[in-house]
Amino acid sequence: ARGGALRRRGGETLTVDWEAVTGFALEEQQQGAANLLATFDQLRPADLANVLHHLSEKRRAEVAAALHDDRLADVLEELPDDDQVEILGKLKDERAADVLEAMAPDDAADLLSELPEEEKERLLGLMQPTEADPVRRLLAYEEGTAGGLMTPEPIVLRPDASVAEALARVRNEDLPAPLAAQVYVCRPPDETPTGKYLGLIHFQRLLREPPFALVGSVVDTDLRPLPPGTTLPALTSYLAAYNIVSAPVVDEGGHLLGAVTVDDVLDHLLPDDWREARGGAPPGLEGA
Asked: Which part of the chain is the CBS domain (predicted)?
């Protein structure tokens, strides 16, 4: 056993076992969720998800319960399916619905698709209709197709919008980088499914145009959109062939339904256990 020397008064040395010394470190078992949250506060969602994955089920539930809805939603989007289902199942139905509303619609749809039908419908019924409707539309598409992978919330602009307006939308810090890479020009309504899809504009083109120019005058109409039934291999080839990070999904009537981004494609191309390869929890927190 490790030993340490303590000096008594008068110069006499007393040697004790290290295990007998207390107060210098906090036992892992005594670390509450609040202490863990303070430790994880600066972590990116993907890194926090990696840590949660390696915690014990009990501690994982404690941390999830202490996170606010938006933060928990971001972390759930980065977790394996089993962990998502486990954490959501430990939340009260009302809070589970709130967290699903805070998730990106495509991620919420992926999570709900893992649940039993009765539970899925119960949670959808608790969500606000404006939040639940896009998720229901995504659930109607076959898994692994452009319709099933797309997000229904790309940047949509009318043709009479200015380049300055388009760049202001692109600068939104809450927008994922692949979605900010290009804007989609459509006739009203602006929400998906939109009016007639006219084309897209990459943000590099926007940077080259004067701010007062109308997006309708610089729109790219040459890149063909994808139908919602496009398979994953065809979708992958499309992104690679045109060197783009997102692709428009348009129905037979010419309405924009959403956009598929490269990160969602990669999630489905990588092995199911790809997150395991990212490494374990920080030292001292394994199975905490």
From this structure: 150-218, 219-276
